[in-house]
Amino acid sequence: MTKRIALLGHPVAHSISPAFQQAALDACAIDARYEAWDTSPEDLRIAVERLRSGDLLGANVTVPHKVEAMRLVDRPDALAERVGALNTIVHRNGLLEATNTDVTGILRALESAEVEVRGAEVLLIGAGGAARAVVVAMRHAGAARVVIANRTPGRASALASLGGEDLDLRYAPLDIADATFRGAANRARIIVQSTSLGMRHGPDEQANPVPAELMHPGQVAFDLVYVPEETPFLRAAAEAGARPVGGLAMLVHQGAEAFRLWTGAPPPLDVMFEAAREALAARSAGAGSTEALGGPEDG
After folding, report:
1. Which residues are catalytic?
2. Best CATH choice for the domain 3-100+254-286 from the list 3.30.70.100, 3.40.50.10860, 3.90.230.10, 3.30.565.10
3. I want to staple 72 with a disulfide (CB 3.0 to 4.6 A). Which of 48, 117, 148, 215 is the partner?
4. Where are the domains of the chain?
5. Would you give the end-to-end CA distance of the chain in angstroms?
6. 145-150 and 168-173 as β-strands: parallel, antiparallel, unpaired?
7. 42: Cβ–Cβ under 8 A, 6 or more apart, which residues?
8. What is the pLDDT of residues 105-158, one digit of tens each?
9. What angle in degrees, to the nearest 10, is found between the helix axes of 269-282 and 17-27?
């Protein structure tokens, strides 16, 4: 019997996950289909219950369902509980287990770019759903401090519990004229951009929250947006001599970890990256996305 894997979100037509996940299944000769299920919030409970069917291996979950779906599964793991959101559901023996592979995707994207997180000071732009996974990833990797810059201080401080006792979490206004923000940008070894700013066809596709004058050589600039591959933020980083890291690696790596959990097979990363880039090229005139982690509407 052909197995199935679902993508639950609303909307999902823009997603490139079906392209690279199906390519991986085919490359591994796994008889399964990866399907996009456009699921409205009012239909989420029904969609999650469908995952208990014997032909379903599990699902990816994207915006706007990552938090709400936590209440509908049987066994969210410690990582999903810590982030407060899931993005992967695995069907095992009639039970729905869940985790958050966004954290793994962030860490593996940085690792593949040879970025050392341990002991680093990190400036995190944004305090939405994507930022939650970033804070947990930085804590896991041993960052010394994360400064969260957001336009709304209350949303930034709401992430305080994610740091635990071993990560120094601080806050700054997202304002390039503010001395606290400028100081955090200057000290940071890694700057992570977790909002939809600069996303093609997003609300402000020309925006860059950290101008080149606040970045310098020796820094890493990591943008979770993956369309376009060179965002205004990454372009400014390159101009300043900082090292830009785009969001596509994070998207593929989080998907690869989900693939391993569903199938038990090693994910064919080369195949997945090739299929993801082909899908992006084919949709170059379409909407951009922070689909893997969600954007500001998720937090």
Report:
1. 66
2. 3.40.50.10860
3. 48
4. 3-100+254-286, 104-248
5. 39
6. parallel
7. none
8. 999 999 999 999 999 999 999 998 889 999 999 999 999 999 999 998 888 888
9. 140
Give the integer Cα–Cα distance in Å for 202 and 137. 26
Per residue in 13-69, pLDDT (tens digit) is 888 999 999 999 999 999 999 999 999 999 999 999 999 999 999 999 998 999 999
Q: CA-to-CA distance for 20 and 272, rounded, in angstroms?
A: 5
- Rounded to 5°, angle at Cα 194 from 39 and 72: 30
Q: For 104-248, which CATH superfamily applies?
A: NAD(P)-binding Rossmann-like Domain (3.40.50.720)
Q: Which two tokens stand for residue 278?
A: 């082909």
Q: Which two three-digit tokens encode residue 251? A: 């998207």
Residue 291 is which amino acid? E
Classified as helix, coil or strand, 153 is helix
- Dist CA 234 CA 5 (whole Å): 34
> Which residues on neighbouring strands pair with residue 123, listed in sequence order?
147, 191
Q: Which two tokens stand for residue 233?
A: 């933020």
Q: For the chain, what percentages of helix, strand and coil (3-state, to nearest 5) are there?
A: 40, 20, 40
What span, in angstroms and rounded, lies between the C-alpha atoms of 240 and 234?
10
Burial class (CB in 10 A: 0-12, 13-18, 19+), 140: middle
Q: How many CB atoms lie within 10 A of CB 162?
A: 21
pTM of the entire predicted model = 0.90
